[in-house]
């Protein structure tokens, strides 16, 4: 179902976030993430005027992960920033992501290592989407979700209890994964 029709309005700002996942020949995966902020009109920054349509932020973050979702390499790039010569000097700090697991308290460890003055607010915000992006990338490639197959398998499908729709005691699991539905407790 689409959003409701909006009241009359004018576009002023666009933030775009993308994550592309690549399987590498060496068995590792790269997650290339980017974030951009673009104003439709000229704005005055402390560093000068930024023309409308030109990015205020154009930032990139690449993490390389293994099959267990542990970061084995990381790099960042700042192609457009509001304070050139200052914002774009923090890229090396993102090496601190190496060794973190995207599945084990990643956002907490990210905050400990790169929040506030320890990193770039926008790159750190961008990093927060990496765990769910990695899960989507690995689904049916690295993680077998077993959608509609192997109903006799010994392992419960990974996606059960990972979201509202696929709660173990819910109707979607009863319909699509009947073997794994949690029966309500009766007194």
Automatic annotation (TrEMBL):
<dbReference type="InterPro" id="IPR021312">
    <property type="entry name" value="DUF2889"/>
</dbReference>
<protein>
    <submittedName>
        <fullName>DUF2889 domain-containing protein</fullName>
    </submittedName>
</protein>
<dbReference type="Pfam" id="PF11136">
    <property type="entry name" value="DUF2889"/>
</dbReference>
């Amino acid at each position: 179902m689409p959003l409701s029709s909006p009241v009359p309005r004018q576009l002023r700002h666009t933030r775009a976030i993308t994550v592309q996942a690549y399987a590498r020949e060496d068995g590792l995966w790269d997650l290339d993430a980017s974030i951009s902020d673009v104003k439709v009109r000229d704005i005055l920054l402390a560093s000068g005027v930024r023309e409308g349509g030109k990015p205020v932020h154009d930032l990139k973050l690449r993490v390389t992960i293994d099959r267990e979702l542990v970061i084995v390499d990381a790099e960042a790039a700042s192609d457009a920033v509001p304070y050139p010569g200052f914002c774009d000097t923090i890229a090396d700090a993102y090496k601190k992501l190496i060794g973190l697991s995207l599945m084990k308290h990643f956002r907490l460890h990210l905050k400990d290592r790169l929040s506030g003055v320890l990193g770039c607010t926008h790159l750190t915000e961008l990093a927060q989407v990496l765990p769910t992006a990695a899960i989507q990338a690995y689904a049916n490639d690295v993680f077998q979700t077993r959608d509609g197959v192997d109903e006799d398998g010994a392992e419960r499908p990974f996606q059960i209890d990972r979201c509202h729709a696929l709660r173990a005691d819910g109707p979607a699991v009863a319909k699509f994964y009947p073997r794994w539905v949690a029966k309500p407790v009766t007194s």
